[in-house]
């Protein structure tokens, strides 16, 4: 049986480690939200570029 002071220190240390873990998970969540948003923006831009390339190709054919 541990003395009460020792039990409290252990409990406090465990709580602190758990809170740090929660904080890291929150940071990872926030990062992945931003990352997902960027991925979406990139795919939209890729689609726009592909679209404009097709328009340019059609325009060149029509002008040709």
Based on the model shown, name its key terms.
mainly alpha; 1 helix; 64 residues; single chain
What does this structure look like?
- With 64 residues, the chain is mainly α.
- Helices cover 94% and strands 0% of the residues.
- The chain is rod-shaped and about 90 Å long.
- The termini are far apart.
- The mean pLDDT is 85.
General form: rod-shaped
Number of helices: 1
Mean pLDDT: 85
Distance between the termini: 91 Å
> Strand-and-helix sequence, N→C?
H
Query: Unreliable runs, pLDDT <50, ≥5 residues?
Result: none
Rg of Cα set: 28 Å
Could you give a short account of the major beta sheet? Answer: none
Quantity of strands, as a count: 0
Category by helix and strand content? mainly alpha
Tell me which oligomeric state these chains represent: single chain
Beta percentage is under 5%
Portion of residues in helices?
Answer: over 70%
Please give a quick description of this structure.
The chain has 1 helix and no strands. The protein has one helix at 4-63.
Outline the secondary-structure elements.
Elements: H1 4-63
């Amino acid at each position: 049986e541990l003395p009460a002071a020792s039990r409290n220190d252990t409990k406090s240390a465990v709580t602190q480690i758990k809170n740090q873990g929660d904080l890291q998970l929150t940071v990872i969540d926030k990062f992945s939200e931003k990352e997902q948003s960027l991925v979406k923006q990139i795919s939209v831009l890729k689609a726009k570029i592909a679209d404009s390339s097709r328009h340019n190709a059609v325009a060149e054919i029509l002008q040709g």
